[in-house]
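Readers of this paper often ask what the protein records in our data store actually look like. Below, we set out a record of this kind in full and without editing:
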Amino acid sequence: MQPDSGNFLNSLSNLSAIGVIHTPFVECAGTPIQSSGANDVEGVVEVFPEYAEGLKDVAGFDRLWLIYHLHRSADTQLLVRPYLDTELRGVFATRSPARPNHLGISPVRLLRVEGNRLHVAQVDILDGTPLLDIKPYVPEFDHFPVQRNGWYQGRSAQGVVADERFTLTDEPRRRD
């Protein structure tokens, strides 16, 4: 059965936050660009009370995928200069936050669960970020050996932090 494209597209506007992510990062500049580079950074994921029941059994996982809205990201840019490169790249070949739907994902390490609060580590997310969903990280599902790594080959995010290049401002963003 084919979904009715009109209803499907309208359902996308029904996304809403299920919580908020609390971290030490109040500005984009200085935030680790990937969770793999945020080893010692801890935060708290506050799930709104009406969704707390959905946290049942989450404590049994070492890692969780946080899916969130990049609410402070610049306007969409289809060509970007990623943090690990100096060349313009297509946004879909990067982890740039200046994406069409401003969705972010991070595989954080779960430290403990206290009611509707998840204490997590390896956080690369701005404080106050709206949480859209949580999924368990399952190595059998989420880890694949690869042969090609595109322009990322040989690069590392360790120690690399964000600057202001993708931060929302009052000024229109220029596409280079």
